[in-house]
Structures
1.
Amino acid sequence: MYRTNTCGELRLSDAGREVTLAGWVQRTRKMGGMTFVDIRDRYGITQIVFESDADAALCDNANHLGREWVIQVTGTVAERTSKNPNLPTGEIEIIAKELKVLNRSEVPPFTIEDETDGGDDLRMKYRYLDLRRSCVRGNLELRHRMAFEIRRYLDSKGFLEVETPVLIKSTPEGARDFVVPSRMNPGQFYALPQSPQTFKQLLMVSGFDRYFQIVKCFRDEDLRADRQPEFTQIDCEMSFVTQEDVLQMFEGLVKHIFKYVKDIDFTDPFPRMTWADAMRLYGSDKPDTRFGMEFVELKDLTGGKGFSVLDDAEYVGAIVAPGCAGYTRKQLDQLTDFVKRPQIGAKGMMWVKIEEDGSIKSSVSKFYTEEELRTWTDRAAAGKGDLMLILAGQTAKTRKQLCELRLEMGSRLGLRDPQKFSCLWVIDFPLFEWDDETQRYYAMHHPFTSPNPDDLHLLDSDTGAVRATAYDMVVNGNELGGGSIRIHEAELQDHMFRLLGLSEEDAQYKFGFLMNAFKYGAPPHGGLAFGFDRFVSILAGLDSIRDVIAFPKNNSGRDMMIDAPASIDDSQLDELQIKLNLKE
Amino acid sequence: MYRTNTCGELRLSDAGREVTLAGWVQRTRKMGGMTFVDIRDRYGITQIVFESDADAALCDNANHLGREWVIQVTGTVAERTSKNPNLPTGEIEIIAKELKVLNRSEVPPFTIEDETDGGDDLRMKYRYLDLRRSCVRGNLELRHRMAFEIRRYLDSKGFLEVETPVLIKSTPEGARDFVVPSRMNPGQFYALPQSPQTFKQLLMVSGFDRYFQIVKCFRDEDLRADRQPEFTQIDCEMSFVTQEDVLQMFEGLVKHIFKYVKDIDFTDPFPRMTWADAMRLYGSDKPDTRFGMEFVELKDLTGGKGFSVLDDAEYVGAIVAPGCAGYTRKQLDQLTDFVKRPQIGAKGMMWVKIEEDGSIKSSVSKFYTEEELRTWTDRAAAGKGDLMLILAGQTAKTRKQLCELRLEMGSRLGLRDPQKFSCLWVIDFPLFEWDDETQRYYAMHHPFTSPNPDDLHLLDSDTGAVRATAYDMVVNGNELGGGSIRIHEAELQDHMFRLLGLSEEDAQYKFGFLMNAFKYGAPPHGGLAFGFDRFVSILAGLDSIRDVIAFPKNNSGRDMMIDAPASIDDSQLDELQIKLNLKE
């Protein structure tokens, strides 16, 4: 037996026991005639004491231990003279009797501490050492715990986890499919699923009633900051349900996770906001509702005073930054620079301050009287000491810019605490998106999304106004997941295809397989999918999903540790009956 | 709301309640002025009654329902006149008040019954309909339940489920790797993992201590009867453990599954058998121990009587088929034909009968006296009415043949009840296998398998006799899983590579990445992997893994339902910078 206890479990009540621990040398230090060795494993750190007086040879061995060596120590648990209240094992130490080196270690390329001296690239290359850091390992422990609780909740609600295939078929829409040549079927390829959407709908046709899966999905796309070519979804689908049933069920899931993983009880129902309101009040379909600072529209108050910027603007919107009237010129210029950055793209920013004495100052006081400006601040319910920030321009673009400004102000004002969680359903998404370039409608989610039953009469007459039975779960400004009720009636589906400009042949070619299955008694059904990596990162309070993935890939889709992807042998290519066709 | 209850839950105590059910039409029949409709969902079947007298129009609608239509029915629960004791809902029926057709169905291509009229190919093509059959769905419910209980057990033992990557690197040994061209890294390929072996060992280096994962693995090989190109493993690894620790832990897992899924309590420890004994007694490293019929070796008793078949044989082995002395000439000929089939390859079979009166008959009585034959039957402890079957030849081959004969006799005698479970650890596998062709040793498992500590002194002097610290879990003659303690010491690993004829460069090229990681403090570790598909199929009492997989592939690796793999667009090939290179 290698150990009687882990390095995290001994307490004062164990004093006097002889124990054996095994783990990694975190650090060693000599003090007087004693050598202290901190031994570490997944469960904690325990201090070992080697006394030179008691056993000089043993102590000498301890002095020769290196960082990250793997050792086994037998000794007696004793109360510490100087206790460490920050360590669960901080009241005890082990007086060593035996020491065995199980394995040596070369000096690691960075320190194995929460605050490491290793840069990103080095940590990724030596990810197996990075994973020894308790903060990184903690993220993966959280991930395990969350996956476990998700399964516990869904199992208790009668959901069956069904594994859908990874080797599937490339779809005509599958521009970003990873493909896999088949040795047994030369010239033919499998594709890796971007989601199990088709299969989960088939399982509903099969009468599985409640399906879920925590499942890897794949997308071969240019990786933006926080995307991975392989990612994990919590994929769910239910039969014989309305939107309300789905929202209830998965609100329950999210609450279960917060309760059993984070010990946070959400007693009230999650707020629900229409997509239209989200865009109007926050300029985003995933508003961060940890703080208010909703948009205020001023267009009707700003016109006709000869200030062309506001006169010509389709939209004038403002937010109120509470207590920021004291912002200096420099601070205001910083904010102006922020909104003028190319990725945000505003032309400029206006402001109105209500000083502590109630007087008003503004960047546009040349054009507006104090009385006129007060109509603006009144509408926004801005008070003494508040700062009103105003953007103007084309509606959709300006809302987006104001959204960024709002988030920036939220961050500056410390209103976006990563340990505070604000959950929200966004509902009533539009069913269609109009594309100016191709002059036609596209499905905002996918072409199987059911229209809101109340809007069915608008399908032909006011297509763009039709709302979808689609919903997103938003937490702290992140889209945690989303889904929809699906169309299960053939006639309605045909109507949708027509509105999307798909001929019968097109529809058959693109979606025929699923449509054929639907001919054999498809039940009403709907569901949703959560991004599991994102879900974990939010609960971990992290901005990036990378550190909640054990072995992530970098922005070029490379695994720096194993150095993949890589070239393969000609013989392998030959067997697959393909060859390279590299462009210059 | 689509339903108040499922089709499986109403009982006599619900009589008088108004309920709404939704599901599929299993069958309709008219009797007198009434129409009976069986409505089905995942949870069961409920009988609906439409009374023509009460509502002729409603009853007429019911008469026009087709098989597998999706309907919603509201009505009152009533006690049945003629109860059906075979159905949990068999005491009640619903007196219908309302009927709504939620969806129609074309006539399905086969009947949705346990005993269906659909052939294999048809069922696979319409797998979404096949999955409606309760027997098939039951397998997947079992699979869900098992996965859930596996996680529950391992979580309770401190194992962390960690997702390892699916897009990894092709290894030099990876002749059967599926590869995935990378669009972002032209000319380079990922590979899909045949197992997460490297990653789980890295997680041990990372100090994760106890890891598991229920994970898809991939192998692009010619598919024998019961293999799938994608399959699921329960992959596990532990640090600071001996073989005994691993066996205890995973014996506990298997017992937990039997207990919580099949309600079978295994109180005794699972038997353990050395590989050598398994080969000697059963001719197999995965003996079916649901029945005895162990091999008896007769070589020392059979020589020198002028019967060259036995005189020249390296090995003479027998099994005793109890109570089969009455076998006719024809039955014996059938058995002889069985062992002579090319896939078994015996030259012939000999037999000795002990008749009920104690007299002995034998196919070799020309060469042996009754007294001589009686020394054979005595050794085999054969009694009156028993039949002894004898094969002879080269040891390894003959044992294999005798193994097949034993299994055949077990089946004929009804000793292989799929609902009886016999679990066994096979231990002490040889570390090396000698290959005559290349005249060198190969690792029987993989080159990281640790030698049995007691045999370390034999590594150079008697290499072939060295036992591995490797073990298999065998259930009913199936290898359910296996694993080993891994080598964690660099010196021993180098020694192994040398014995396997790998130069330092070879070893570095093939395994360098893992070996480098091992330089940074690898703990002693070991683990195992279970084949999850097989595990489920055994508990389901099925021979094949295909029906415990929701969407399996056929023997050509094809998904008949979605028709994958398939050709892809030239534009896709072009973007991946590869082209086809089809052989004639």
2.
Amino acid sequence: MSRKPDRKPLHLNAFLMSTGHHEASWRLPESPAEANSDIEHYKNLARIAERGRLDSLFLADSPVLMGDPGRRPAAKLEPTVLLTALAGATEHIGLIATASTSYNEPYNLARRFASLDHISGGRAGWNIVTTAGADAARNFGLDDTPLHRDRYRRAAEFVEVSTKLWDSWADDAVIADKERGVHALAERVRRIEHTGEYFRVDGPLNVQRPPQGYPLLVQAGSSEDGKDFAARYAEAVFTAQQTLEEGIAFYKDVKQRAEAVGRNPDGIKILPGIVPVIGDTEAEAHSLDAELEELIVPEYAKRQLAQRLRIAPDDLDLDAQLPEDIPTEDEIEGAKSRYTLIVELARREKLTVRQLIGRLGGGRGHRTFAGTAEQVADTIEHWYDSGAADGFNIMPAVLPSGLEVFVDRVVPILQERGLFRTEYTARTLRGHYGLPRPANRLFETVDHSEGHFGIGLAEVR
Amino acid sequence: MSRKPDRKPLHLNAFLMSTGHHEASWRLPESPAEANSDIEHYKNLARIAERGRLDSLFLADSPVLMGDPGRRPAAKLEPTVLLTALAGATEHIGLIATASTSYNEPYNLARRFASLDHISGGRAGWNIVTTAGADAARNFGLDDTPLHRDRYRRAAEFVEVSTKLWDSWADDAVIADKERGVHALAERVRRIEHTGEYFRVDGPLNVQRPPQGYPLLVQAGSSEDGKDFAARYAEAVFTAQQTLEEGIAFYKDVKQRAEAVGRNPDGIKILPGIVPVIGDTEAEAHSLDAELEELIVPEYAKRQLAQRLRIAPDDLDLDAQLPEDIPTEDEIEGAKSRYTLIVELARREKLTVRQLIGRLGGGRGHRTFAGTAEQVADTIEHWYDSGAADGFNIMPAVLPSGLEVFVDRVVPILQERGLFRTEYTARTLRGHYGLPRPANRLFETVDHSEGHFGIGLAEVR
């Protein structure tokens, strides 16, 4: 591969998930039985990723028990809380928590992210999700999930309210003037008085403006609504892309949409997922992949696939291809683009249900790549140079071992090729991704006129 | 004072608040300017409290900017997040976070507390509050706060839902049977299918049962509704009591109410607040107290007092007593008992508004006690022996210095008198308070019949 030492470095995010992204990873002899609620396990993962100078850690989430608890570790510590614990175990790495705009209140969530950003010294990121599925809805007094488009409308307003709340304290609001007895300037803290379709929020927030201004805004939906949302709000996008061609098309599409709404396309980083299965030889890597595939319990996986396809498990025959009569993407509510990706993968490669289950076992639709460290570095470089990625969302099949081997063997190759940092040069998550700190929209100029909160300085002099 | 070496030890909780409970504490030369968002400041406080073998740390909270940001550090990091960070800086001490039942969803909040309990190894506590005030309501789409009684009804149902969610995984649900490929037993994880007046929640929770079963349940309301709620649900009660007589009456009242609903009165610990101002001599303590009082900005404090009394600031004359024409407790929505305490204090001692402001400056209605370490230990012992307290909520006027002097000088006296532990003997917050781990109400016996979640073990064999 050609070396271009002056090119921009790429970005790497470690997507953490209990014993690994492969659904059968927990069955390996070395996997800890209760990794999903063991803080020491997660601290270890965070330190490994930081040793590799990765940009960030990421936790997926949904406010519902996802899938069958028999099948794999299904319980998950709440991400803003878990990442706060990991902030204390690390110094540099970014901390990206998934949180739902459908099942939270902006005041509470904006405050937790602001708190995490303060506690971590500017390392918080928010993966904004709208949360599909009736099961989640039924944990919040609803019978079924709101419609896809409505969820995205709410998400957009949620982000608007959140950014206003983060802006409700000017960066210079706190003066702590002990002599005069004025802690914060009343005219530099103000109500937001937001009234919209979904929310009425007066503010101000009861946390000072976060070190990063806003946490890094991340998005992972790849449907049409999802891409429009990303183009407008996201600064990093996690996406599942099975082929280079699809990856290039997605990359172009999102960057163009961002430009169309007046944004700098460099301000939105595209990170496809990759499940690297790494061996000393290619054969060893494939053998590890096959070993994991054999550990999948087909009854569980078939049931999960049937749920995703909205058909009965009995309509799936393990040794036949997918039935013809399954819904179209338009008929699906939630995880729309992932649905299409899975169906197209099965049709394109004429996979039996059993084979499809094997292909989904590693990354649930994300691209699995088995090979040597060199080959993994090659595919990363190739996708990067081809304009399919600004970086990658690393999803080790097995944890911690898959992250260790990636950090110890793939990262040095990328560093040697001038593709990845050898030391952290920034202190914040935005800094790692080369993204600016947002200006405060409520305090662009000093405003002594109205809307301020509390007694003005003149009154206490 | 008489020594009774075989008596039960008392309990001590450190109530943390930025630069201290005295509203003017931040104006002292040594107070850090941004203590309220400085995680290192809080870690230092947590370690001091743990050095003193205190039972727990506690953070008050409300989802609104409380009071004037000019007056004192008003911003607050969100407690479940902040205490998670403190869990990593400590090993034994309990971590009690305030969270509102009026402005949260049970699924989300139960999950965060379960997560904190897992991360801290069983040290989480929840101070259950209903959150008064129109300002908070207006951060959540409401025009005004729900009525006092309605808020308590919702709180009761919220606690019921939360405990069911914590019970939705049997303690032995996870078997991690790698051979058969069964991570959790389907019949030991179940939906709660709660349908009530305020909430419909299907469950199960997506976090395994917390190490403590439930976090310690704490309550701090002292109104009639508040005492009834405490009697039914609380295991520890924080309360403001100005005089020993009132303290004894409150203690008896709550214990009797607990007995009346069939609870063991020992299972509910009463902890009055105390703001200790400690000097080498009594004169030095009073001088520190006077120094702090002089630093109060009367304009801010008068405005705050007027708000509490629901009158205009101009109706208060700093050098006169409270006007006659103020509301009765019945007309007040929220913080009802504190309202009465303040009015009675002012009337009983015939205080001018300026004097009342000084008396409230330290603990906002909690009892301030200025004296030597020996005198502070004496008053603690006296209240304890008189049946007014099972322990105390320690509210240092200045932080960290007030906590340091309490830990280094008062705690050793209490230990010498056999009143306080010299080492931690338990690993959990419940253990420190001598309270049992609650049994699981959904899995008292193994139930293979119905309501379980996922595929049964037989199906995957």
3.
Amino acid sequence: MFKTNAYFDDKVLSIAFENQEGKATVGVMAPGEYTFETTSVEYMTVVSGEMQVQLSGSNDWVVYKPFETFKVEANTSFNLKVTTDSSYKCIYK
Amino acid sequence: MFKTNAYFDDKVLSIAFENQEGKATVGVMAPGEYTFETTSVEYMTVVSGEMQVQLSGSNDWVVYKPFETFKVEANTSFNLKVTTDSSYKCIYK
């Protein structure tokens, strides 16, 4: 019933769903460094663990902890470093 | 790499992970009514949507919204009503 998507040799796995927040996923990332490309605006909320985030055009890495959210613009990319299994919610706008 | 588990005719799907919070899952539930049995203490946190929760031995249904957490004792059961796709984190202690 729910669709899963795997990325980066299955080191990132997500489940898609949709409700009043819009189209969304919850997922888990294994430790690693990842670059994601966006096609819509994304609101990423850390659910467990921790994510180091570098937005496109920024030199800075910012740390996000559980229930903290960062916004990524559409049609850009962002870099993530994860040092422990970490879970997230992503809402697509 | 990450193990998924499906329950209730695939209306509930979860991904298992483990980090400093302990053994955990994130998952999604489709609308429906579910009874879950526990083998360990569970800390359930709503991530998106809403869950109506009735703990074992209680007549009351309590509503939990995103980032609200309820605790379920080990070796008991609890009832959930979900009226919209809802996601959650569960930590097993």
4.
Amino acid sequence: MNLHPDYLLNQIQGPADVKKLSVDQLHQVADEIRHLVVEKDAAIGGHLGPNLGIVETTLAFHYVFDSPHDKIVWDISHQSYPHKMLTGRAYGFLDNERYHDVTPYSNQDESPHDYYRVGHTSTSIALAVGMAKARDLTKQSGNIVAVIGDGSLSGGMALEGLNNAGKYDGNLIIIFNDNQMSIDDVNGGMFDQLTALRESNGEAPNNLFKAMGLDYKYIADGNDVETMIHALEDVKGIAHPIVLHVNTVKGLGYAPALADEEAWHWHSPFKIEDGSDVAPASDAENYDQIIKDELGRQIEAGQPLMVITAAVPGVFGLGEIKAKYPAHYDDVDIAEQYSVTYATGLAENGARPVLFQNSTFFQRAYDQVIHDMALNRYPVVTIVKNGRISDDSSTHQSDFDLAMLSNVPNIEYLAPTNAEELVAMLQWALTQTEKPVIIREPAGEVTHGPISATAFNQIKAQVVHQGKEVAIIGLGDFFALGQAAAAELAKDGIDATLINPVSASTLDEATLGQLVNDHQVVVTLENASMSGGFGEHVDRFFAPTKVRVLNFGAAKEFNDVVPLAELYDRYHLTPTQIATDVKAVLKNL
Amino acid sequence: MNLHPDYLLNQIQGPADVKKLSVDQLHQVADEIRHLVVEKDAAIGGHLGPNLGIVETTLAFHYVFDSPHDKIVWDISHQSYPHKMLTGRAYGFLDNERYHDVTPYSNQDESPHDYYRVGHTSTSIALAVGMAKARDLTKQSGNIVAVIGDGSLSGGMALEGLNNAGKYDGNLIIIFNDNQMSIDDVNGGMFDQLTALRESNGEAPNNLFKAMGLDYKYIADGNDVETMIHALEDVKGIAHPIVLHVNTVKGLGYAPALADEEAWHWHSPFKIEDGSDVAPASDAENYDQIIKDELGRQIEAGQPLMVITAAVPGVFGLGEIKAKYPAHYDDVDIAEQYSVTYATGLAENGARPVLFQNSTFFQRAYDQVIHDMALNRYPVVTIVKNGRISDDSSTHQSDFDLAMLSNVPNIEYLAPTNAEELVAMLQWALTQTEKPVIIREPAGEVTHGPISATAFNQIKAQVVHQGKEVAIIGLGDFFALGQAAAAELAKDGIDATLINPVSASTLDEATLGQLVNDHQVVVTLENASMSGGFGEHVDRFFAPTKVRVLNFGAAKEFNDVVPLAELYDRYHLTPTQIATDVKAVLKNL
């Protein structure tokens, strides 16, 4: 139901309605937007700080410009809630039964005021320059506006974008939303110079934007809607690219968010009155902690570890490492390419780098993995998290990591099946010196079990149960699914062999070769997209033989917030479905 | 034989010998190095301009610093010939029988003065910061020096590197070798501001390096060895990061190279006296020209094409497009990530972007291909060149493109088998609006033949010859190899079916499914690494059936300048080997 039928926002169907508002009404709508951001995030979780900081900029944009004739591109788009409320989608925030009808990122299928599905950082300038040049080439008109935050500016593509924007000579407005996202964490680098610009009202020398050849203006109070309206009116229709450096306050209007900007960038459901979590903190075991505990032991034993993250410490809880071992911790900002090549340099000169990365963001460093890490064979250790079939947004689809990493020479991509194996692999990876090792952190709850080996120089698949006729190979966290499928087959008297393949990138051909003698069907299970993944490598091995292979994993497709149960059902990833498919093949042999 | 037994270089076995040289001798050695660079490149081809420009910097480095205790990292390392001559490898330049004993890029297996196999740009700062932090963490000493050119500075990772260097607080010297590589091509952006720095003796405001938080010094005459010695003595042992902006002249000492810096960046064998080519220009047909001719027709017919390159116009001869259709051409500098996302923006707003990229450099834009291009399904058209098994340096290995691109949803990765099919695919790609299309430019000489279709919305494999028992699927430029293998099998009375699969990313399952009825063996041929590639997709399709599949392509391994004939033999890529392998499987059915 509509929780706020009295709100002015109910009467705003689109930008035309924003233009009719008085200054007082603009202030009222700003308050309403802030309340709705907090209320919705409190109920279902979401990005909070970025949306609270950008309210006035968004109101001013729709007051001054004429969307969608004038076009606005949101970097990452995690700050687009106010934009959505002002472009016909307020219902997704007013009505708690419709919270899920409006997605949290921009989406061109949802509104003509949105242009891209986007969830990774630092892309907005490139997209906006492209739109601007297309406008010129096709003789269209209208302003093109990009909005990018300071957190995203450290990403190489954003800087490539500034250089190319500086070479362009038509209308382009880059709103640099400086909410000092990184201020607590960063000393030196570009962020000190941005501070100098803020403190000098934009007058300090060594201006990064001007150094890229761009025109520049500073707006000290980006949370004053009248100031923002004047600022945008001043640049509307400008015939060359300009950066509007807008100083805003992240989390403005919600006290807990102002007190801890990092914690409130994104937040899970909370109680509005004090910001406390709705769900009690879990004290269950988790793989992150198991990894960090092992690294702590190694650091205390004198290993020259360097723990590296590219601006996602929260994903792994790396604040703990930073606090206890600051000399062994480095957050390189949003700079995934740099993180891998930097790790290679650390390894070359005798340190032991341990890089933590999310599957979806690791895609940004693919060439660095190949050209710097793999070709050069330095012993960089990487932990990949969230490599799995998931119910995430399609912008963060995380099941491509096997195709990305298992096909690169010289890398061992290990897939532990339980906590003990994970620790054994990590210990080995940190002592060996022959190659880069990537460890796929298992998804889901922690399981315990035997380790497959203590050294992994030679990959030896672990035959956990020797059966016959059918062999099930369960990779990493899908080993448990293999056990369940084997139990299902046992009900029909089929005694399936059960194998932990240990590595996603190296096949133990000796063990697999023996299956040809007394097995008719081999089953592969991978928590990943199958195209280019583990199962296809097994297929190639058995392709010239009489053995039939059945692969289970995700199809090659994007999925946008599809419930996991639905995906598992679609991909036949339940023990019953697997057993049924296996029996069908057996019957037709 | 040693062509210059009289050269002082014969007495330089390493950096210790450089330190003994008088100023006059340093000048003499500089002259010798220049002569040898020109002489070797004239004989076998190689990087010329970058090596001629860096001679004095290199001499000064080895005069002032103590390599390998002090370490120098060369960006791309295409300017490392002088370094190699001064670190015990002058024989590879003095003795024309040993030209191939010294590789053209840095190589840690070749010398303790080299640290990485490197051939892609913009990595040196990341590597150097890593080495510096590892030095600190492991309580080593010595200076860390990175050398990076202005051409590489536009790459996002270099800029990420500057930001992270600016955050570091120990010894690090970044030599910014500004030889105005891009000066002819570039207006605006960072390069205008670098010009302002040169013209103001380093005093101009809006200094990119200072904006990244770095200390900075300008050296106007980087080709004066005494100046460079003093400059490096001044910063040796410095306790914080500093950028030495060194102004040098690319191609210094060879008149033709000074007259056309771009043409002499790398050069094939030439006559020293006038710089003319040894090999006469070929007037044979080539696929680049066929593509450019088609694009020219489309532009003249009014299509809003935008031809994009990320600083490799020479690979495709795009200067022709730039000259004839300047409004339809954009070189975005070394900025591969940007190029893809920018193309997506162009497509969104109604232009028709055509991106040209080398297989090996395209790796830099993997996430942009997935997150911006594929997920958003805009009709960006990309031409990928050199996707093939090759005799290149391992730094430029180019056979990973099928694993990189064929596993991404929503993309059609087309593999034409001849000129007519290439044009048909390009024409279709530029009129359809449903998805990004990538076209794999065939390697080798142009062939002609029938087209498989005029539209490629639905992939329909082309059964070129209907046989039985054995089916050969030859992808793209390996279709011809399939024909040859079929001819070989015909000698033994085997009438193989011959199929052009059209796409590397989409299987025509209807056509493949029919093979199950009357074929025992399916053969796949791909000019690529097989791991994650085309053949494995075919394997997965047939895995649950009785059909045996044999895959032919490259193994998952790096190869460093291995002759193509040797690779083909190793991978069984000759018609005779293929036929023999097929017959062996048939015999054991």
